[in-house]
Design a protein that fits this description.
Layout lengths: L1 E2 L4 H19 L6 E6 L4 E7 L2 H4 L6 H13 L7 E7 L3 H10 L3 E6 L23 E4 L3 H21 L10 H8 L3
Parallel strand pairs: 1-6, 4-5, 5-6
Antiparallel strand pairs: 2-3, 2-4
Length: 182
């Protein structure tokens, strides 16, 4: 199900997704970008980039933004005859949205060993849902994964430089438990 396909057209659209990921990084967001291409025309009908920090929303993923834009452009929730290019393997939420929107194919760059739900952690498109998009992984993988690695390395450096580090006392659950004497 997960195969590498590196043709020129895939690279062209993935380059646009990378531009959107770089834009997200410039905003301080995790650098993930996505584009949706309508196959009959070859036109990009939806674009997205991560905006979780900006929007203060766990739903503000690049894939969901691109799906929303494509749905509006096509005038309906079914995004048929279309494919998504995304710089990082989709998470479970985005994989579910891809299934429901009826996208034909998903092409991603970097594999996500922590929450990738197309090939890495689980294979959601292999489950007995009523729609099973085709998948191609590892398209421009090096460029996509390098962007993510550089972003997180810089984020860790800034946190260390500013004396910021996470410990359990920063957790809201820990604070509530402490206040309640648990």
């Amino acid at each position: 199900m997960c195969c590498n396909i590196n043709n020129d057209l895939d690279k062209c659209y993935m380059e646009r997704a990378l531009e959107l990921a770089e834009y997200a990084a410039s905003l301080g967001e995790v650098p993930v970008g996505a584009v949706i291409v309508h196959k009959p025309t070859g036109n990009i009908i939806g674009e997205g980039w991560n905006k979780r920090e900006s929007d203060k929303s766990p739903l503000a993923h690049a894939e969901l933004m691109a799906i929303e834009n494509a749905s509006k452009k096509l005038g309906g929730w079914r995004i048929v005859d279309s494919e998504m290019y995304v710089t990082l393997e989709p998470c479970p939420m985005c994989a579910g949205a891809i299934i429901h929107s009826k996208l034909d194919r998903v092409i991603f760059g970097a594999y996500d060993k922590k929450s990738g739900s197309v090939c890495s952690v689980q294979k959601m498109f292999a489950f007995p849902y009523n729609h099973k998009p085709e998948v191609a992984g590892g398209v421009m993988e090096e460029q996509c994964s390098t962007l993510l690695k550089v972003f997180f390395k810089e984020l860790r450096r800034k946190k260390k430089e500013n004396g910021l580090h996470w410990d359990k006392s920063m957790s809201m659950a820990f604070k509530r438990a402490s206040e309640n004497g648990d």
